[in-house]
TrEMBL record:
Location in or out of the cell: Membrane
UniProt entry keywords in alphabetical sequence: Heme, Iron, Membrane, Metal-binding, Transmembrane, Transmembrane helix
GO cellular component annotations of the record: membrane
Coiled coil: none
Main location: membrane
Residues that span the membrane, as ranges: 33-57, 106-129
Gene3D superfamilies documented for this protein: Fumarate reductase/succinate dehydrogenase, transmembrane subunit
Species of provenance: Microcella putealis
GO MF annotation terms: metal ion binding
Name of the protein this chain belongs to: Succinate dehydrogenase subunit D
Amino acid sequence: MTATIDAPRSPYAQTKRGVNWEKWGWIYMRASGIMLVVLIFGHLFVNLMTGTGISQIDFGFVAGKLADPFWQIWDTLMLWLALIHGANGMRTLVNDYVSRPGTRRLLHGALAASTVVLLVLGTLVIYTFDPCPAGADPSLVASFCEGL
């Protein structure tokens, strides 16, 4: 008795002319994974190991980090790489396990829409965060904002 393995169900596994998006997705996953390891461990080291450790993390600490252009770029890279990395992984799962084309298109659309919304909102938070908004009630803002 011999066992046979069925071909993958994904219609995207077929060879086509033009850009090989599956290959570039595979390469992106490897490159972004390496970059994310560096970014995430750097983030954890600065937040948990330097200074007074975890006890230093409060609103003022986060506000100070988000005021520094270096950390804005660092956090933006982490956000974009992680979200696109995760969305690409979910896209691969959808391709592997969803056999109906209509359902696959719907899931890919939902995945793309949610990724775009999260990227836009996350990027806006990183670059527009203001811990001391002008005209705010002094009782509602951080203690270091008093005097504005």
